[in-house]
Fold:
Amino acid sequence: MWSSLFRTLTDARLGTARSIFIVLCLAGVGFLLYVLLHLISDSKRGMRKTVNYGSRRRMLPFGNKNRENHMDSPSSSLSPAPKHEKSRGRKPVSRWPLAILLLLLVPGVRAQDPPKNADSATITQLRQELDALRSQVAVLTLRLNKLENSSPGEPASSTAPVSRSEIRNAVPASTPTAQVMHAFQGSASEPGSFLRDTTFNVLLDGYYEYNFNSPVGRVNLLRPYDVSSNSFSLNQAAIVIEHAPNVEEGRRFGVRVDLQYGQATETLQGSAANELRPQVYRNLFQAYGTYVAPVGSGLTIDFGKWASSLGLEGNYTKDQFNYSRSYFFNFLPFYHMGFRAGYNLTPKVNLTYWLVNGAQQMEDFNGFKSQAFIFTLKPASTVSWNVNYYFGQEQRDVVAVLNPGIPTEPTQPGLPAVPIIPTPNGREHIFDTYLSWNATPNLTFAGEFDYVINRYFSTSAPGHVMGGALYLHRTLTPRTALSARTEYLSDRGGLFSGTTQALKETTLTFDYKLADGFLARWEWRRDFSNQPFFLSSQTGVLSNNQNTASLGLVWWFGQKQGSW
Structure:
């Protein structure tokens, strides 16, 4: 019992309360020892017994060895002390309370002297706790350094993520690996770590544009996004949620979902020309899951719907040089549904393979799976070059059911069951390449070249699209920039515009960043053709050019850094 009491009092987890309690116990023990010594001293003086042997008195000490012999003697008797001696001296004290007190104190004293192996175990435990504290301090130091070194435009976060390799380098080498990983896991598994690694992002993109042709219906032709003239318009409102994989932190999977609303939605996934049921997926721009397989440097596998990387330009205006999009952005595929797998062959060469339903087909309408090989080359830190080849069958083999009503078959509405006879079997081939070069931190050049050939039947005359675009982007100040684009597209057989013609456009864009996450863009653009093609103010009268001036306003916020 006393040993367990000692262990409880000396438990290191009691902290300051333990120290105070031990001091009080020691003071109590000291007091008891003082009382004991005092009693013993008194007993030596006052506990001498008077023994009568006839007429003679003899004082026998309590502790004398011959005491028992005298007590056992038949002639011995204990005479009580006279009354006058009781008043002068002290009352004799019984030896039994003293014996009981000694029995109580001895185990307690022994309990305060723990064995040597207990001291060794305590020291080992203290060392382990010290190593754990060092690891935790290293994690906190790394986080603090990241916060101090972050740029002013980046959102501050009190839970800056720290990788395993950073912790290994920061913690002293003498610290056991288990303690290092414990510190890391404690950092990664604290409340809210999942949300900390998930980015929630919002973008709002609107514009006003004026077409100097004053076209009938206020329509801008060959524009994928800025389609309206003389109208305040909402290009798109987008929500991007991403939980990206991070192999260094032991997370090999990820998910991304992009929701989109506005005029851009009708262009990207609202057309029945390429979708069997566009209304089902209209607001879902991207939705895919990722897994990084432990193969070599890491094989990244995606499944779902994802934005196409054919062509230089992308969906989100904040990441583009210009407000309006090029002809080739409008012509090449916007998205794909299926599998893609990417692998870094070398630190400067990446190969990605696609196996998809087709170009902009959430639901395959011909049963033929299209494929692509995407090469990304980085010969220098300032140069990025993509070489892409895509091929497949892009003609539908069933009759579309537009605006479906009550199902005609025991299945979902809109799924076609009437085949096209004869079945189209032509193929489409796309060769696409683009290159960007950061000549200086404030000056970027880019170029794109595309060649596309498509046949409706394998024996049909092909349609051809060939051309390219050149870009220049100059950062003037931290808040202002100037961009220019010139483009040429040869549309033979009307594969892009429905008319055989040579299309050209030039665009000049001025950026002013009013604040972080708020961008204003002024743009002048001229489209022209070698054929009368663009709408004018008179019905049935076409023009060979189209001039527009626009103001675009873009807001965005979220934890995702860089391009979306």
